[in-house]
Amino acid sequence: MIPFTLLFLLFPMMTMNAAAPQTAFAVKELPYDYGSLAPNLSEETMRYHHDKHYAGYVARLNELLLDSPLSGLPLEDVILSADGALYNNAAQVWNHELFFEQLAPHPRRDPSAELLEAIDRDFGSLEAFQTQMNRAAAGLFGSGWVWLAADRDGHLSILSEPNAGNPIQRGLTPLLGIDVWEHAYYIDYRNRRADAVAALWNVIDWGEVSRRYALRR
Ligand code: MN
Description:
The protein is mainly alpha-helical and 217 residues long. The chain has a domain at 113-214: minor pseudopilin epsh fold (3-Layer(bab) Sandwich). The protein is 53% helix and 10% strand. The protein contains 9 helices and 3 strands; from the N terminus they run H-H-H-H-H-H-E-E-E-H-H-H. It has helices spanning 4-23, 43-65, 75-81, 84-101, 113-123, 126-139, 186-189, 193-200, 206-214; strands at residues 144-150, 156-162, 173-179. The protein has a 3-stranded antiparallel sheet with strand order 2-1-3, with helices on both faces. Bound molecules: manganese (II) ion. Manganese (II) ion binds at residues 49, 53, 96, 179, 181, 183-184.
């Protein structure tokens, strides 16, 4: 017979194990090799960013969901309903999955005709849009994200969000995200955030950004 105190110790472990498979989000692998974005982003940066930072957010999110009524919901629903640490970790998981998916070793260099038309209408030109994104990235104080987002009608806007901020909470579809947390660039560029952002444009896949624009809701 198991002594009562031992049962008391075992019970929470048994319930945690039983709940884990329903709530756990998995780390998504990169859709390219770690070193394939060099020299714009080094293999070391990609290993730290994906395997340590992004995977860390996934692990912390899964821990927090064990004690949350939001456990079992799709990630976007968690982002829409959560606040505090749960929001921060859920949004960082979502943000990083978009960030990695929008990059490619051999990216498509131009937006779709539909997206280019919207960029010309809302920013003047592709070049003017990139200048505004660069300015927003340079001007964001501390850690955060600069987003290109679309509303349901296809109108575009640039958003500067601190920390894990994500346009989904504003009812917008994120199309392109620049991670300006120091962990995204410090190994390769040290304090030179503007140089890191300039290099990032070389590996942005406009095919993926255009696909997100076509699927906006
Ligand atoms: Mn990051």
